[in-house]
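User: For my dataset I need records formatted as: sequence, then structure tokens, nothing else. Please produce one.
Assistant:
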Amino acid sequence: MSRKVVDVQVSGRVQGVFFRARCADEARERGVTGWVRNEADGSVAGHFEGEAEAVDALVEWCRDGSPRADVTDVRVTDGTDEHAEGFRAS
């Protein structure tokens, strides 16, 4: 198993459309740990840790997001392993 850690910044209409809650559900289903939160600029930031295929699948989910979201950009960078336990949306 190959472990992967990434940070994401998701832009567009991603606040107030259940993006964080759905992202957390998707992460838990895939066994990805980390977090997702709203940012002051209207974007959503996330930190994903786990098996590479599962992390990649969650990043791909972010490109569409929740049904009411309108994602315009997803920036992905290598993250620092926080050894997160579980996944939280704040």
